[in-house]
Design a protein that fits this description.
- Strands 1, 2, 3, 4, 5, 6, 7 and 8 form an 8-stranded mixed β-sheet that branches.
- The protein is elongated and about 100 Å long.
- The protein has one domain: Rossmann fold (3-Layer(aba) Sandwich), CATH 3.40.50.10610.
- The chain contains 4 helices and 8 strands, in the order αβαβββαββββα.
- Helix 3 packs across helix 4.
- The protein is α/β, with parallel strands linked by helices.
């Protein structure tokens, strides 16, 4: 191969490389179109939850709903886990509101609309604080939706009870387009189930306190 042939071949490769780069720059990536989901239960599910709560409701008891918060990473994007230590975020799956808002409404509805509690906004009676610390799709080893909540029930004198509630529900296998909806449905049900467990534990604690025999001091 002569020097002229070599220069010609190098020139052709250079032109081809420039054309390839130009095409790549002119080619636009597909725009990301987020899909928005709500964790609010459907009307039928809300009615069913209300019926379950009404059955176990006791005479009205006073309760103040205090701080209702969530972990800082629980924002607009839906969360997934592939391991116990690593979180990921779906770029194309978004909540219409932050999970904390769904959680607060679910608590208020379960306590005051369905659970037989009387809302107290001031004073020194029993107070319930809650924190939603996880609402995520677990993709391995089992495909489940997880809701995890810390709660503490206290009064001016002491902490009555505190615990962590964790609910794992299986996510139904679906086609690609329907898989996101199946995941959201399972997350919504897990959140409602966690709220139901909190209400049940709070009810039991207050019932035990109300039914405890009064102590009479000797004179």
């Amino acid at each position: 191969m002569t020097a002229t042939d070599l220069r010609a071949r190098l020139l052709c490769l250079l032109v081809l490389a420039q054309l390839t780069c130009g095409c790549a720059l002119l080619t636009k990536a597909e725009p990301l179109t987020p899909r928005y989901f709500s964790a609010e239960p459907s009307d039928a599910e809300a009615v069913a939850a209300g019926e379950r709560s009404t059955v176990r409701a006791a005479p009205a008891r006073e309760l103040k709903l205090g701080r209702v918060t969530s972990a800082s990473y629980l924002g607009e994007r839906l969360v997934f886990r592939d391991s116990a230590y690593e979180l990921g975020f779906y770029e194309d799956r978004r909540w219409t509101e932050k999970p904390e808002a769904y959680f607060r409404r679910a608590l208020s509805r379960a306590l005051y609309e369905d659970g037989g509690f009387r809302r107290v906004v001031s004073g020194g009676g029993p107070t319930l604080d809650c924190e939603l610390i996880e609402l995520a799709e677990l993709r391995a080893p089992a495909h489940v939706a997880r809701a995890r909540v810390n709660f503490v029930l206290y009064d001016p004198r002491s902490v009555r009870t505190e615990a962590t509630v964790t609910v794992d529900l299986p996510i139904a296998a679906s086609k690609d387009e329907a898989q996101a909806a199946a995941s959201v449905a399972a997350l919504s049900h897990a959140l409602v189930s966690a709220v139901d467990q909190i209400v049940s534990r709070v009810s039991s604690n207050l019932d035990v306190t109300a039914n405890a025999p009064a102590t009479v001091s000797a004179r």
